[in-house]
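Researcher: Next entry: RNA polymerase sigma factor (Vibrio paucivorans).
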Amino acid sequence: MSKEALDATKTYLLAIANTRLLKADEEIYYGRLAKKGDHNARQVMIESNLRLVVNIARRALNRGLPMIDLVEEGNLGLIRAVEKFDPERGFRFSTYATHWIRQSIERALMNHSRTVRLPVHIIKQMSLYLRCARELNNTFPKEVPPEAIAEQLSEPVEKVRQHLRFNELTVFSLDSYTDEDNRSLQETLPDLSDNTPQAYLLKSECYVSLEQQLSQLPHPHQEVLRRRFGLGRHAPSSLKDIGQYLGLSRQRVSQIQREALALLKERLEKD
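Model: Predicted structure:
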C-alpha cells in the first residue's frame, strides 16, 4: 500500500472511530423513517454502520485492492442495504447489511481481477450472438449450436464460432456475471447503434476499460454517471431521481454529470 493510501486509510479510520452503533429499537425507528424517504434518518443508519464495513473489508485484504478501496466499495453496499432494509421483518440491520456489503466488495474484487480488454466491435458482436442464443434457447434441448445462431442472423458460421470462443476464453464472460436482478452483463449493455450517451461512452473504449476509468472518478461523479446512463447494474434514472438518492438538487446533479463526462472523456483520450 502506498504512503498516500495508508494515510487516507488512517484518516478515515480515525474519523469513524467514535461512531455509535444503533440499538435495536433505534434501527426500527430510523429504518422506518428512511423507508419513507427521510434523508437524515438514512444518513444516521449509514454513519452508524461504517465500522461494520471496515470489519468486513479487513477480511478481503491481500486480494488485490487496498483497504481504502475495499471500504469505499463496502460503503456502496451499505447504502444499498439502507435502501432495501425493511424494519418490520424483525431482524437486525447489521445482519441484513452484511450481505450487501460483502456482495459489493466481492464484485469490486472480481472486476479488478478479471479485467479483459476487447475491442468494442467484438463486444458488440458477442452481445448480439448471446442475445440470439438466449432467444433460441427454448428450441434446443441443450446448448444452442453456432450454426443456428448463424442461420438466424445470416452470419458466417465461423465468425459466430470465433466470437463465442472469445466469450468462453475471457475470464470475465459477458454471460457469466449477473447482478442482483439476475441480469447478465450482456443484458445490461445498450445497443451501440442507439444515439445515446452510453453508446458514445462505450464507443470510446471497451466496456471494461470504461469501468476502469469510471472507478477513478470521485464517487459522486461515478454514481451520477452509472445511474444517469444505466451503466452496470443500474437502470437509467432522471436527474431528479438521482438527486433524491444522493440528497442533492437536480441542478447540482446536472453539474456533476457535466464535470464527470468531461473528466471521463479526458481519461479515455489519454488511455
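Model: Note for the record: The radius of gyration is 21 Å.
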